[in-house]
């Protein structure tokens, strides 16, 4: 991240456990007992809970249906040492402010992942002596907040430090082993070719240590990207890198790949609109990618004026939008349709309507968008979002909603 992104955020997610894995049960003051599905942690947008005019998480949940948040960032103390802090200044051990935010989210049925690293600042992998002590520092964060998910944001300047990356990857592997069911994410910088030399070295370090996450995410922005087409091209190229590095086939590589975008105006003056997010979302779901997230919820609101006078802000997007427009794409990726109109505190499920006549038969070559209907296997189905050549099945993660027998 650029200095602004250190406050704006963006991260890498590596998913360690399969969907629906057994939840971690921890004794902690934040009230965590049950994990969400891994799909929610994979969709969690970044939120700075202490800086950049933090928005009300409960209000975002009510307005969008969002359940998971990626809290940023845990760093080493500014004065040095191997103990976790928020932003280098607020010790995790004595924190009450972030814990209050987490408790509010969990009281409404949501949960959080915590992101470590980011652009700039001093990371624990740089100050701790080895992988074991780095892992011990991160374990304090997991235990303190009863976490079911953690995110490793490995980028400049840390990822240029071979020893620091060895510590971070080693710590990720230790945490994975010591916390069964923990969802671990790893995010790194994106380039037109997928990722740069240091990103590739990080992947090779993971391979050498036998660390296999569910996904490596890239951040395709701040690198001369022009809209969604450039981003999806980078994701395709990154898929090839994952294949060649780990010996995976294409489908396996996509299942271990993630996208971490930046909503609105990036640090380098690129612009990513709601339409760009929809295009990348379609690509991610169409290729069965594992993660779709963005930096950040603090920015998911309109500036005044909307273009923010041609500058990038940590508290608004610099594009015309309604509040939380971009969060709704995370909700879609999680497989849930965002609410419309005035939200109710406890949404009541709509009964599946009965149907006596079948719609036009589903076609593998047809393109379906949200609301389109088709019949398959003597049931009618409604598309939740854009889809093509995805067989209608009753899956919370899938693009189809079963409307009953016909």
Q: What does it look like?
A:
The protein has 406 residues and is α/β, with parallel strands linked by helices. Helix content is 31%, strand content 17%. It has helices at residues 3-8, 38-43, 57-64, 97-107, 124-127, 131-145, 162-178, 197-209, 227-246, 250-255, 274-286, 327-334, and strands at 46-47, 68-75, 85-86, 90-91, 111-117, 149-153, 183-189, 216-219, 257-262, 264-265, 271-272, 291-295, 367-368, 373-376, 379-383, 387-388, 400-405. The strands form four sheets. Strands 1, 2, 3, 4, 5, 6, 7, 8, 9 and 12 form a ten-stranded mixed beta sheet that branches. Helix 6 packs across helix 7. The model is unreliable at 6-29 and 341-355 (pLDDT under 50).
Portion in strands: 15-25%
* Principal-axes shape call: globular
Distance from N terminus to C terminus (CA atoms, Å) equals 52 Å
Q: Please identify the structural class as seen in this structure.
A: alpha/beta
The poorly predicted ranges are 6-29, 341-355
The value of Rg in angstroms is 20 Å
Number of strands: 17
Q: Overall mean pLDDT score? A: 87
Specify the biggest β-sheet.
10 strands, mixed
Bin the helical content: 25-40%
Number of helices: 12
The helix-strand sequence is: HHEHEEEHEHHEHEHEHHEEEHEHEEEEE
